[in-house]
Every structure is written in C-alpha cells, then in structure tokens.
Design a protein that fits this description.
The complex is a heterodimer of chains A (108) and B (120).
Chain A: E1 4-7, E2 10-13, E3 19-25, E4 33-38, E5 45-49, E6 53-54, E7 62-67, E8 70-75, E9 85-90, E10 103-107
Parallel strand pairs in A: 2-10
Antiparallel strand pairs in A: 1-3, 3-8, 4-5, 4-9, 5-6, 7-8, 9-10
Chain B: E1 3-7, E2 11-12, E3 18-25, E4 34-41, E5 48-53, E6 59-61, E7 69-74, E8 79-84, E9 93-101, E10 107-110, E11 114-118
Parallel strand pairs in B: 2-11
Antiparallel strand pairs in B: 1-3, 3-8, 4-5, 4-9, 5-6, 7-8, 9-10, 9-11
Classes of the chains: A mainly beta (108), B mainly beta (120).
C-alpha cells in the first residue's frame, strides 16, 4: 500500500502569511494527488486535484504543485477562513486512495 | 447539484453490526463515471477509507476492515449501504458517504456525516 506523509502536522500562521504544506508518497504516484480542506464539524471540501488543478470555486490564493513523490499545497496569503485542517489523498493506486494524516493550520 | 445524505442509528452496541445508508439526490448512482464510498473519522483523528462500490457491485474495502465490511448498492432507490460487523469502541467515528470519480480518484461530493457511537 502507498503511504502518504504530510508535514508539518501543525502549522501556525498570521493572516497574510504565505504558507506551504508538504505531502510525500512512499512511491511515485505521478500527479494523482488531491487536496482537501476540513473545518471543524464539517465535511472535507475538495481544493485541488491532479496535483495542481484548482477545483471550481476555490480562491486562487490556493495553489498546488509537484509530481512523483513530493507535493506541495501553498496558500499565498492566508485569510481568516483558511484556518482549517488540510489532507492530501493519493488516487494512483487501486481505489479508493490513501489519505495523509492531516495538517492543522492555526492562528499564530 | 448532487447531494448525499447518510442515515442510520447513531448508537450501536459492541459486537453488533453498524448499518448506514446513503441516499443520493441530484444525480444517478448508475453513472459509470463514479464510485460511491464511505470515509470515517474517529474523534479528533484523520480521515480513513472504509470502502467504495461501483453501481455494478464491484467493491474495494479497506484491508484493515475487509473481514467486517459489506457494501451494497440499490440503483432503484439511488442508495448505497454499509454494514460493519462486530463493532468495538474503535469504530466510533463520523461516517461520511462520498462520491469518488472513477478515473481521477478525486472526491467531489461528501455527505454531512453521521456520528456513530459504539457503546453499551
């Protein structure tokens, strides 16, 4: 099975900061990497798919990159509504595709 | 707009079977472009796949849960279901039903989630 490792597990930032979250796969997954945002008490929401494609309706301050084993989710200027937990998910292997353990973005 | 709605008991006794149903509206469960699945989240923990099912009945289950999981689909009702047997407190979680794209693997729709507590 493919393992997905996110870093850091927790990240503190101020409004307006640029932040990046890393997701590493235990083997190459090409660009089959998706990112989700989850706020407390809510279902996750798709942010990015295929590593770098922005889901419709998601603000352009979110961007994604990488291929193979190393991927990054970047928020160019953190807004108050961005404080949440972020998960990566690989969809290269047999369905359904493993999640990372999550990265919690908190207010500094 | 596709909507997914979980239903089922919120409390299950240890050793019994957890049963949940997801009703899909705004789209057909027979759409061959998608899998339908369950993701769970224990309190204060991360996301974990339980399993997915294709409308023709093909299933993929989490290896760690495979011996206890059964999923089914009812195309006439536009619903799919989950049964998890021999539950323990470790199965206490919010259970989300999801729609997963067949080719890309992204999950574009989630239900609101239902908390299932395993307790006597």
């Amino acid at each position: 099975d493919i393992e997905m490792t996110q870093s850091p597990s927790s990240l503190s930032a101020s409004v307006g900061d640029r932040v990046s979250i890393t997701c590493r796969a235990s083997q190459s997954i090409s660009s089959y990497l998706n990112w989700y945002q989850q706020k407390p008490g809510k279902a996750p929401k798709l942010l990015m798919y295929a590593a770098s494609s922005l889901q419709s309706g998601v603000p352009s301050r979110f961007s994604g990159g990488g291929s193979g084993t190393d991927f990054t989710l970047t928020i160019s200027s953190v807004q108050p509504e961005d404080f949440a937990t972020y998960y990566c998910q690989e969809s290269y292997s047999a369905p359904p595709g493993t999640f990372g353990q999550g990265t919690k973005l908190v207010i500094k | 707009q596709v909507r997914l709605q979980e239903s089922g008991p919120g409390l299950v006794k240890p050793s019994e079977t957890l049963s949940l149903t997801c009703t899909v509206s705004g789209g057909s469960i027979s759409n061959g472009d998608f899998y339908w699945g369950w993701v769970r989240q224990p309190p204060e923990r991360g996301l974990e796949w339980v399993g997915i099912i294709y409308y023709r009945g093909l299933t993929y289950y989490s290896p760690s849960l495979k011996s206890r999981v059964t999923m089914s689909v009812d195309t006439s009702k536009n619903q799919f279901s989950l049964k998890l047997s021999s539950v323990t407190a470790a199965d206490t979680a919010v259970y989300y039903c999801t729609r997963r794209a067949y080719s890309s693997g992204l999950i574009d729709y989630w239900g609101r989630g239902t908390l299932v507590t395993v307790s006597s």
